[in-house]
TrEMBL record:
Ranges of residues in domain 2Fe-2S ferredoxin-type: 268-359
Superkingdom of origin: Bacteria
PANTHER family xrefs: 1,2-PHENYLACETYL-COA EPOXIDASE, SUBUNIT E, NADH OXIDOREDUCTASE HCR
SUPFAM superfamilies membership: 2Fe-2S ferredoxin-like, Ferredoxin reductase-like, C-terminal NADP-linked domain, Riboflavin synthase domain-like
Pfam family, one: Fer2
Domain FAD-binding FR-type: 3-107
Protein name: Phenylacetic acid degradation protein
Species of the source: Maritalea porphyrae
């Protein structure tokens, strides 16, 4: 089933730091099944901001079984949605919220030893994963390495300390600070390859023994930690991460290929299958993706990031052909099976049918 937006009411707004807030949404009984999630998934929030339809995705911090769904939002310089959310959203306000999406997930019950490595707002999905693991399995142990600039910039600091107090024997919490000295030198600096190796050498962490290593934060940090874990012998299948960048962070689009230009010149007959219905339109601009062309023709397709990272617009090429500009989320087997991302796909054939209902 394709993800859908529903209007949810804000039930709580909580200050986390000077520039970050936790926003909670009440989920009515009739939508509980729609908003069932796996720890690590995210919600896409949508609002009209100064006349623009703006969407941004934020990870769920709530554990399994929570009454409301909570996301953590840190204000980003010149960030249109984050500035709006941290300044204007109030309890009782309604907002368009997409049903949960994402593959950065933890299998509660099957992961007995989890290593979580986060930086900055990358802590948000870790809150859900850590608490769900600890509450859902009395045999589960969690080690959380969390990097920040200083103590006052730590998101969910009180909640983390409370969680540590509840699960003293099963939760190891390691704070790494880059702009505030701590008594133990190894806890100072940034999370990079040297830091990970130092933590391993002092037995503070043991990635090889973990059932799952979960990494979330800036893209550069994710790549460095992932590579370091692989170098010390962690099986690739046990390393989990999710690259995610909002729409205004996407790379410059590559020039259309000869096939794209020829197809657009003739006019591509595009058919969309979504929720059992079929809609058609013509694509005549080789620079446009299917998502952009559909929007121009008044057809709303599911999407979040527009950067090829979140997989919300995943669909299957049922007829014709298309090429993606970038792809950070589809697995090789999915591409081989004919799946594409509508936000990145540009037709290379005269006819193109995309099926959003195909799983």
């Amino acid at each position: 089933m394709a993800p859908k937006f529903h209007e949810l009411t804000i039930s709580k707004v909580e200050d986390l730091t000077d520039d970050a807030k936790a926003i909670s949404f009440a989920v009515p009984a009739e939508l509980k099944s729609d908003y069932h999630f796996t720890p690590g998934q995210y919600l896409t929030l949508r609002a009209d901001i100064e006349g623009d339809d703006v969407r941004r995705s934020y990870s769920i911090s709530s554990p399994l079984g929570a009454r409301d769904l909570t996301v953590g939002i840190r204000r980003v310089e010149e960030g249109k949605f984050s500035s709006f959310a941290t300044a204007d959203l109030q309890v009782g306000q309604k907002l368009q919220v997409m049903t949960p999406e994402g593959r950065f997930t933890a299998d509660i019950g099957n992961i007995k030893d989890a290593l979580l490595i986060a930086a900055g707002s990358g802590i948000t999905p870790m809150m859900s994963i850590a608490q769900s693991l600890l509450e859902g399995d009395e045999d589960a142990n969690v080690t959380l390495v969390y990097g920040n600039r200083e103590t006052k910039s730590i998101m969910f600091r009180e909640q983390l300390e409370f969680l540590k107090d509840r699960f003293m024997e099963r939760l190891t919490l390691i704070h790494i600070l880059s702009r505030e000295d701590q008594d133990v030198p190894i806890l100072n600096g940034r999370i990079d390859a040297d830091k990970i190796n130092a933590l391993i050498n002092t037995s503070a962490i043991d990635p090889k023994s973990a059932d799952g290593v979960f990494i979330c934060g800036p893209g550069e940090m994710i790549e460095v930690v992932r590579a370091t874990c692989e170098e010390v012998g962690v099986d690739k299948s046990k390393i989990h991460f999710e690259l995610f960048t909002p729409a205004d962070g996407q790379e410059p689009r590559k020039a259309p290929t000869k096939e794209m230009l020829e197809a657009a010149e003739q006019g591509v007959a595009v058919e969309i299958i979504l929720d059992g219905s079929k809609r058609s339109f013509k694509l005549t601009d080789a620079n446009e993706t299917v998502l952009e062309a559909a929007n121009k023709h008044g057809l709303e397709l599911p999407f979040s990031c527009k950067g090829g990272m979140c997989c919300t617009c995943r669909c299957k090429v049922a007829k014709g052909s298309a090429e993606m500009a970038v792809n950070y989320s589809l697995e090789p087997w999915e591409i081989e099976a004919g799946f594409t991302l509508a936000c990145q796909a540009r037709p290379t054939s005269d006819n193109l049918t995309l099926d959003f209902d195909e799983l």
